[in-house]
Each structure stands twice: as structure tokens, then as C-alpha cells.
Amino acid sequence: MAVKTDIEIAREARKRPILDIGAKLGIPSEHLLPYGHDKAKIDQAFIKSLEGRPSGKLILVTAINPTPAGEGKTTTTVGLGDGLNRIGKKAVVCIREASLGPNFGMKGGAAGGGYAQVVPMEEMNLHFTGDFHAITAAHNLLSAMIDNHIYWGNSLEIDERRIVWRRVMDMNDRALRDIVVSLGGISNGFPRQTGFDITVASEVMAILCLSRDLADLEKRLGDIVVAYTRDKKPIYCRDLKADGAMTVLLKDAMQPNLVQTLENNPAFVHGGPFANIAHGCNSVIATATALKLGDYVVTEAGFGADLGAEKFFDIKCRKAGLKPSVAVIVATVRAMKMNGGVAKADLGTENVEAVRKGCPNLGRHIGNVKGFGVPVVVAINHFFSDTEAEVAAVKAYVAQQGAEAILCRHWADGSAGIEELAHKVVALAEGGSANFAPLYPDDMPLFQKIETIARRIYHADGVLADKSIRDQLKAWEAAGYGHLPICMAKTQYSFTTDPNLRGAPTGHSVPVREVRLSAGAGFIVVICGEIMTMPGLPKVPSAEVIRLNGDGNVEGLF
């Protein structure tokens, strides 16, 4: 029997009107702003009315380092939300919105998979409710106002060599990484070198995802450092009087989006900073609102736990005062074999020894997450090629790490295939063993924070950074930014900065290429190795197979 694709399954979904989904959470219809029949935004007035309500329990879903074999973190997040509802808990899923760049590049979609998906799948993976377009517009409005200010006399005395605010677009386009603007004569301004980042790397995206409300959003936008004068005095967004107009552009984007799973359970899909070049979590406002409406909130952090979970704990939870009750680490037998040295073409053949050889990658993530004081359970996302002996090897290894691994079949069976994990999550959450604490204190020096992450999470011997980078960090400390957390920009494929080093490598160092101050978002971005803030498309991009069929339906998203 042919296996249906994700988009075929999504298209067959029996969706309920979005007002009905809101009613399940007690959201009155007048506080939902529908975008069609199957998605809506929740207005700020209702969100504000929830203040004072007790919060539910927060469950983080993270994963091992991603491999071409596939792990299924979002699929497990959605499946667990459905599973918790299936066993009688009032649960809400909170995930990120998808970026057009990777969807047309390598991923082809980001709404879960199989029978554990959020719908409408096509809209979520394309324009959705326009949030990313609003973020792109707000970011580039500020870019335009910087160059316009200089053109009309530069009363702020901006040093054109020290403009740090680039432009963004929500697409993978390597040709725009480094460019020269304002060519063509006097009427076009003063030529200078700049470039584009992808929208999900924008500080505006990070600010929207960390802001509590519109007032907080506008203040954070005003705090953005866009440039420096010749004597290195910072120029802020508010100095250019751009923060008000940017807030207007982001007014609707700030409202969380409500959609549903295939099993008609509520899902908040809001915000989408990348985890390898930004902080990788959905918005604080969506998570905080969901915690007031549900007994359990299941959210994810991007890529492996070394990036997504670390930033979730050290940035999002620190900033928002969140205290997670349980962490679920997603792994697959196929990925364990790949970490054990098996080629992708050979993953369908049983190889228990390779599974055992690859498990240390999982073990390191277990130990790292436990180091934050959060109880851990491992979800083995089942594939048809998995054998009993291979699954048993993973379970035995995880047991040696002082945790439990549970086989989950949610991709094929929906909530029925993940009940055991749902019961385990409830038991851990109700057990009250969580004692969450970030990895480092606010008052630790910035370079020491970087070293702490490198040594304790990446298990590196140290950090390699030029004197200019160390001096820049000290200058930011002197300017009052020393309390900020660190946002590491690093390859997602390895604990090191070399994407080809799988497993649990040791004896490596972390080279820091650049540091950027995100004063509005409230963190320091540390760019390591060859990571790019504007990705490129692969040799054969997913865009080549995405098209409309004869019935006018989207094909090629997966």
C-alpha cells in the first residue's frame, strides 16, 4: 500500500471552524480575528484579561543534532499535544511559523508530518497570516530611514563605516550576503557596503518573539543600536524616530495565531527565529497565553538541544520567567545509525552495533538538558525500517543515562501512537522534580558566558577569539550590556563548528568570527565558524518540485 504524503494527509483533514477551536480554550468569538475559516489571531485585550490566572505546565520538545535521516521534532511536538488531549488533559501546542527560505530550499515544509500535523499546512508553510512579511517590512523601513537620514544631512553624525543594521528578506539568496548600495550618482545617496540577512535572523523577529505586549515591543524596537558615530557613540532606532512606525507595521503580527491539529486540538503558531543564527523559539506572548488557557503547553526549540534547548532555557525562559516542567528529547534509530557511521543509503538495513556507536550523541544531549534541572524523557520517533533489536539498543543506552526512552508511532497512528509518552510526561510533570535554573548568571562576564556554553554544552576545550572581539565584549560591558545572555550562531549539525563531525566529539575549540549586539532583543549574538546569517539554496532546491496541480492545489510541500 502506498504511503500518503504529508500534504495529501493534510488535505484530507476534517477541520473544524476556527471559532470552535477557540471555544475549546474559552476564547470568546469577539476576541478572535479570523483569517478565513481555519486560522485566526487572538486580540491583545483578551490576552491582557488573562493576567492573574494560574499557568499550566510547560513541556519542551527538543532533539539530537539533525541528520539527513530525519528526526521529527515538530511532528513529535504536535503528536504529544494530541496525545495529552487524548488522555484527558487540556493541552495546547506552541510552535514556530515556517520561513519561506528553507521551505523552498531544503525542508519543503515545517508543520509536522504524517498524522501529527498542524493545519492548514499549505498556508502555514507559505504566507500564513503575513507575520513574516510585516517583520521584513518593519526591518527594512528602519534600513531606509537610516540611509534617508544620511542623505538629508546626517544631523546625528552617523559614521557610514559603522552602520551595523543590514537589510532582510525571507528567502535564501547568497548573492545578497555582501552588496554595495546607493550606486548611480548623487540622487541615490552615498555608496556603502552592506548586505542582507534572512528575515528569521532579524533582530525585529527576535524582539517580536520576546516582547510581552505592544508597549514592550515599541520600547525594544527603540533600543535597537543601528550605527555608531565617529567617536563610537551608539545611534538608536528611536534617534531616527522609526520605532513608532515599525510598531504600527507589527501591530497585527504581534497577535498570536490560532490553528488546529489534524485531531482538532488547538495550536498556537507564532514567530520563527532560526535556532542556528537566532534564538529558535516561538513567541513569548503565544507561550504565556497558552499557559493561561491550558493545563499543559507543548512547545519546541529549534534544531538539536545544543542550540534550541540551550537558548530556550538561557534566553526565552530567563527573559520571560518561564519554568519548564519536562523536556522531551526526540531521536530516531536511523539518526543513531548515521551518527554511528552508516551512510544514508544503508539506513534501512539492521545494524545494532552502529546504533550503539551513535548513541553518545543522544547521551550528551540528555546530560546537557539534565544540567538545567529539568527531568528528561526520550521519544524514539518510529520509522518502518526500525527493528526490535535496534529499538532495544536505544532504550538500553538511555536507561544507562538515568532516563527512559519510549517508542512513539504518532506519525502513522496520530495520538493513539504516543499515549505512553503522554502518560510519562504527565507523571514527570506532576512529580515536581523540576528545579530549573539557567546555565550561567546574569552578572557573569560576557566572554565567560561564551566559554561556559562552549565547555558545558559543546564539551569544547575552549573558545578562540581575536583581541578585537574580546575588546568589543568589554566595551559592551562598560556600556551597560554585560548582563545580557548569549545567543550562539553555530552549525546545527554538530556539537563543534564543523558540520561533518557527528557523534559526541571532544578535543575541539569554538572559533568566534564575529559578535553582534542585539540591544532591543536583549542578547549578544556570537557567530562561530562558517555559519551564515543569509543561507543559500542547495544544488537542487525544494522549489523545483513545488507547484500547483491541475486542481489548483499546492504540490511538493512535505
Description:
This protein has 558 residues and is α/β, with parallel strands linked by helices. Helix content is 35%, strand content 19%. It has 19 helices and 25 strands. Strands 1, 2, 3, 4, 5, 6, 14, 15, 16, 17, 18 and 19 form a twelve-stranded mixed β-sheet that branches. Strands 20-22-23-21 form a four-stranded mixed β-sheet. α13 packs across α14 (352-370). The radius of gyration is 23 Å and the shape is globular. The two termini are 19 Å apart. The mean pLDDT is 95.
Quick recap of the structure?
The protein is an alpha/beta fold.
The pLDDT mean sits at 95
Q: Quick one: how many beta strands?
A: 25
- Estimate the global geometry from the Cα principal axes: globular
List unreliable stretches of 5+ residues: none
Please indicate the percent range of residues in DSSP E strands (runs of 2 or more). 15-25%
Class by helix and strand content? alpha/beta
Largest sheet: 12 strands, mixed
Q: Helical element count?
A: 19
The percent of residues in helical segments reads 25-40%
Distance between the termini: 19 Å
**How much is the radius of gyration in Å?**
23 Å
